[in-house]
Amino acid sequence: MQSTRRNLPQLFTDARRWFEEGLLASLEAAGATPVSPTQAQLFAVLDDHGTTVSELARRMGVTRQTAHQAVHGLVAAGFLEQVPDPASARQRLIRRTVEGERAHRQAGAILERLEDQLAERISREAVDALRAALETPWGQPPPPNS
Questions:
Q1: Over the range 28-63, which residues count as b (16 or more CB within 10 Å of their CB) and which as e?
Q2: Separation between Cα atoms, residue 27 and residue 110, nearest integer Å
C-alpha cells in the first residue's frame, strides 16, 4: 500500500503557494499592477542595492532566461531598473524604482497580514515555532549514502 504522507518539500511548496496566492489576490484586489508568481519571487530575492540577473536566477532556482524575462516584465511595469554595476563594467544591477519600493512595502504589509491570518488558524505558537525552525541554520545537505 502506498503512503499518503507527503514529504516536507511538498509541504513547503504548498505553504509557499498559500502565501503567494494570498499575496497576488490581495495585490489584485488593491488594484495593483498584476505580476506573475515568478516576478513576485524575483522581487523577494532582490537586494536593496541591486542584484545581477545571474544571481537572481541562482537565488530563484531558475534559468538566466527565466530571470531575464521576469526582470524585463518588471522593468516594463516600472517596478525595476537596470543600472551599471560599479564592481564590473560588464554587468548590470537590477534594482527597484521608487514605484517598485512602494510595491515592495505594500507586499510586505500583505505578507504580515497573511502571517497573522495563519496564526489565527493554526495558533501563534505554531507559527512562531515554524519560523524558529526555518530560521535555524541547517548546514549543508548531508552527502549521499554509499
A1: eeeebeebeebbbbbbeebeeebbbbebbbebbebe
A2: 8
pLDDT by residue for the chain (146 residues), tens only, comes to 567 899 999 999 999 999 999 999 999 999 998 899 999 999 999 999 999 999 999 999 999 999 999 999 999 999 999 999 988 888 999 999 999 999 999 999 999 999 999 999 999 999 999 999 999 999 999 998 85
Question: How many C-beta atoms lie closer than 10 Å to residue 2's C-beta?
Answer: 4
25-33: long-range pairs with CB below 8 Å, 24+: 26/110, 26/113, 26/114, 27/106, 27/107, 27/110, 30/106, 32/103, 32/106, 33/77, 33/78, 33/79, 33/103
Determine if residue 63 is left, alpha or beta; phi over 0 gives left, psi from -120 to 50 gives alpha, anything else beta: beta
Amino acid at 15: A
Is the separation of the CB atoms in 96 and 104 below 8 Å? yes
Spatial distance between the Cα atoms of 139 and 146, rounded to a whole number of angstroms: 20
CATH top-level class of 19-127: mainly alpha
Lookup result for grid cell 494570498: 22
DSSP SS3 for 1: coil
